[in-house]
Amino acid sequence: MEATCHRCHQFFPADSAFCPHCGAAQLYVTAEQMEDEAAAGSLPPLQRVSRIDWHRALISSLVVAAAAAVLSALAVLVPVLSIARFLWILTASTTTLWFYLKPAPNRPMDGGIGARLGTVTGLAISFLTTFSTALLMVIQRYVLHRGAEIDAVFTAGMTTVTDLYQKMGLDAKQQQIYLALMNTPEMRAGQMLSGFAMRAVLITAFLALVGAISGMVRKSSRRIAS
Length: 226
Hints:
single chain, mainly alpha, 2 domains, two-stranded antiparallel sheet, 3% strand, elongated
């Protein structure tokens, strides 16, 4: 007969006092014993055991986020890889859950746990992809001397903005003032940061939702299997 370790969630012989995988003590008391200890006032304070193995969860999230960061950086150089980056981020929550459960498939899992893992993955992806993209742009401008290509992207954006101002009925002087403001380094940096922040919010919210759904599906599949 086998039991499940409360720490690593691996199976072990039920008559073992310690888990052979992580060494955690496997102590059990009956309800009558707890009532007697509580009445005598000698019951030690209970310690709350987290249902999530955060060490494994963070490793799983960072692995998935690191892959997304590499794909984001490569997509700047090879645009066709944008499809692979999109698909990877789209399935990031389910991939994180797979990495998380792989060493111990019987770990607790439900919608709440899946949502938390998805949130952590979304935050990690947002940070690492932003960092890798910014680092690559610095390398392109100051090491590879390809700043003209980056400026061309901003120029194309300014052309779109100019067309929008014309449709709004702004005169040439007002357009010139607004375009001069938007061409300042501070405004460009602000536009990039706001774009990164908006993307981070959307990615994190989406992955949290997908993680919650994946967690509920896995919980349901376990019930059916049992």
